[in-house]
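Hi everyone,

Forwarding the result from last night's run.
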Amino acid sequence: MELERLAIRLRPRGGWEAIDLGVRLYQQQFLATLLPWLVVALPFSALIALGFPQQDWVLALLLWWLKPLWDRLFLGVYAHALFGERPGLGDSLRRFRRAIDTGLLWQLTLGRLDPRRSFTLPVYQLEGLRGRDRRRRIGVLSLRGGGRGTWLTLVGIHLEWVVTLGLYGLILLMLPESLAEDLLAQFFSPESPLWSGLFANASYVLVLGVVEPLYVACGFMLYINRRAELEAWDLEIGLRRLAARLAPAARAAALLVLLVLPGLTLPPLARADDGASPPAPAEVMQQVLADPVFGHDEERTVWVPRFESDWLRRWLASRDEETTEPPLIDRLFLNELLRGLLIALLAGALLWLLLRLLRHRASRQGPEPEPPPRVVAGLEIAPETLPEDPLAEALRLWQTGDQRAALALLYRATISRLVHDHGISVQEGDTEGDLLRRCQPRLEPANADCLQRLTLDWQQVAYAHRTLDGNRLPQLLPCLRALHRAVSQTATTGEEA
């Protein structure tokens, strides 16, 4: 392996840091993995869909079961991108065709449910090991990386579900509320139409093209980090760079030694005295212990408390008789320790009692109510933003031909009354349908029906861009006046109470 060509900086990394590096690799090679995936997956999906038109679950099952095969396509892209190459679409497809022979049968049968799939895939595809050598290699690599590879698989499963549900939610948010409810009812009905299965399978193909390359990239970087740790790749690269930098100086030094060495003469070696004998070890020990630094006696005086308890004094005396070493905890320190523990327990009990009293007082008072939002469903509902007589102003706008402004004024004035006077709790992100569901249970049947009519008219004009009948607003105003009057009476009764 040509380590000098690596596009990443090799250094000791933790397992999760290596996974984060895999995320960066995935970001850089996103299109390089997505395009080959679409070229391979779309014809395969179309073929299976035509072969099983009524069993839409067959395609999803095959896409899921053949993940070890698709992973080899992504790993081929990442393996060449690691050395700074930019693999094209044709190169990726050719490498994918050559990478499906080593260990694929095992991964699709007995090894399909291996939780370390992305971490061990390079052993199958890049190292090409078989049998016992492959098992030993995976065992060595998994000593410090297999656990994180398993957690990576668990995270990948959850991420796949999150992206799938997020895609469905995004599509539903882009549709009108009435159409979205009809589509959901058809999608989850026992006799779902053909389009629901095709839509689910197309969504799964797209989700796999987004999530599976990320899973493979993180497992590949976890594998590279483990290889670098076992084989000290960072040290090897550093030594190679150091040798390349010092090579000219080393050649110059060798040439200098060759030129100077012939003119040097070595002094004769001194001969040892044959009559001298080395001192005995016991004599050496006596000489060392005679030094005051190593051998001396010391007398210490320790103050101990006088205990009134006879049994404790006898127990301490027996402890002193059993061992010549001093006790682990000094007796005076034992007294201070017990006193400190008692004080700490009393202080903790008082603090706990104080916190319980404060929590009980706060629960009796209750949390302070939050002020209602100023904007709901994209409309200002603050009372100061409304005219003194919203109904009359809305009628004037209607007569001038501005139906949208008239209905917008009526709708936000009604919602403002219900929120500020009637005390209905709303959220800033509520839609018209959410507001209707919150308000109807708190209103009389006639007022609830009036609010529903106003909501439908506002949605028709605001979103469907339809023009209503000219008599629509004059027919709606009487029930709106009754609704506003009922809300105002409720607010007055609440203030008096």
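DSSP finds 19 helices and two strands in the chain.

Cheers,
N.
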